[in-house]
């Protein structure tokens, strides 16, 4: 039977997981549906949130899911299904935290959890993160987004607002695309207050902006978020940085934002969006906390999955694995892993000099500050 992640008994998180009525699934076929998962747990009564399949910013399944049961006892019983099959894949079943499930629900527009913080969620579930392109509707499948192409390179957000005069754009809902060196590409994404307004905006297709006519295309929030993500990773072009280990994911410690990019961030709204590892953001003000481990000696073909398997039974933050890339965009053989607590990181040091394949891996304790600085190497 799968446990609760091998946590040391008596910790606050351990107690929360024991009381949790949520389980996390890993290793799902990408074609698996909510109904397949319901059948997998046939005979166990589910809670009101039922099943949610985790998706990335492109709206595609990550192979993970959360399931809420009617009681914690039923969730414990669900652990007995660990390593049983859906199709040809065996499924790993772990106890999950309700907050993590709420984040997954918000990624598909079903979030019901409340998030505290100033103006995190406005009326209608609209988010205000304080970051251009990352506000608005948290559903990655939302189609109230328009992509613009062919704009003058001098175009600003104010010019775009004027272009769509009379049509409501969400706060921080304009993202101007740039190359890695900061030069504008002539493209932008605009998120409107609703899908009807986005459809009306399409009437301006091939209308002029200055001396250029502008092409418009219907888009989704997921495509917009992917563009934001690519810009963030582009900050490390030619200088090394963290790898894009999962399509559409943002690393848990927000290394790709850079230190300056954290200024003015509405953390509560980012939590409401379920973007990246929000537990990591909560403690970001104290970057001296030793919740991270530096790995050295990794096989160059080792990815997120191999690192997760290496730390099987230890509680890693969602999206808390950061593979370090060199200046030529090749792996350096190093990675950083962020754990849920400093104690859990210390426990994970038990894996020092254990192997991945034929290579033994050296482990070193690290702080969040060290990881943020490493992103600028």
From TrEMBL:
GO terms for molecular function: RNA binding. Pfam families: RRM_1 (PF00076). SMART domains: RRM. The keyword rRNA processing does not apply. InterPro entries: ESRP, Nucleotide-bd_a/b_plait_sf, RBD_domain_sf, RRM_dom. Residues 21-98, 144-221, 291-368 form the RRM domain. Keywords: Repeat, RNA-binding. It comes from the Eukaryota. This is RRM domain-containing protein.
